[in-house]
Design a protein that fits this description.
The protein has 207 residues and is an alpha/beta fold. Strands 3-2-1-4-5-6 form a six-stranded parallel sheet, with helices on both faces. The radius of gyration is 16 Å and the shape is globular.
């Protein structure tokens, strides 16, 4: 059993932005588009269970020094910096822009979570070894319970993905689970959700 009360849990969607997901994006993550169906199931379950939903979004100034390493991406005010349509935030969900890897650095994420009484965060998105891992590390250091969904996160290769998940599990002390396992746990906490519907195969979403 996971340590997860929906009233004290937040689903945190990391950097599922046009620039990282769409085939014409500025910094496309291989396979990111294939994560969308599982992320949508988790988002639907989170909303139905009453969980808090937070979006972390890269949001860089046009001359951000980070571009020396990665090239320009997710620039403030551009379409590339927007959350993909398939995971569009609802009006009552927080979208928190960030300029560095961790969603906690220089943002009000921690304040927003604590104001809502959140004790556990669920992380999905990209990249496993960068923004997901650094956000997980800071969350653990701040004594949140952290759950990372292995098949709803992704990066540039399977080897890097697996290494990052190992660090998240063995160094940060976080839980690493698959989508269907997490959906079953949410169902145990909120029986009104039809878990068979949420875990059934759905066609992949493509752009």
């Amino acid at each position: 059993m996971l340590d997860m009360d929906p009233n004290k849990t937040a689903l945190v969607i990391v950097d599922m932005l046009n620039d990282f997901v769409r085939k014409d994006g500025a910094l496309v993550v291989p396979g990111a588009i294939d994560l969308i169906p599982r992320q949508k199931k988790l988002l639907e379950a989170a909303r139905e269970s009453g969980m808090m939903v937070v979006y972390l979004t890269d949001n860089h100034l046009p001359d951000d020094p980070e571009f020396d390493m990665w090239g320009a991406h997710a620039v403030v005010g551009t379409e590339g910096a927007e959350v993909i349509d398939e995971l569009e935030p609802s009006s009552n969900e927080r979208v928190i822009p960030k300029r560095r890897y961790s969603g906690f650095f220089g943002t009000d994420l921690d304040l927003s979570l604590r104001e809502a009484g959140i004790e556990t965060i669920i992380l999905v998105g990209v990249l496993t070894n960068i923004c997901v891992m650094y956000t997980s590390a800071d969350a653990s250091a701040k004594d949140y319970n952290v759950i990372v969904v292995s098949d709803a996160t992704g990066t540039t290769s399977d080897e890097i993905h697996d290494f990052a998940l190992g660090q998240i599990r063995d160094v940060h002390g976080s839980e690493v689970v698959k989508t269907d396992e997490l959906l079953r746990e949410i169902d145990l906490e909120t029986p009104s959700i039809s878990i068979s519907r949420l875990t059934s195969d759905q066609p992949d979403v493509a752009s």
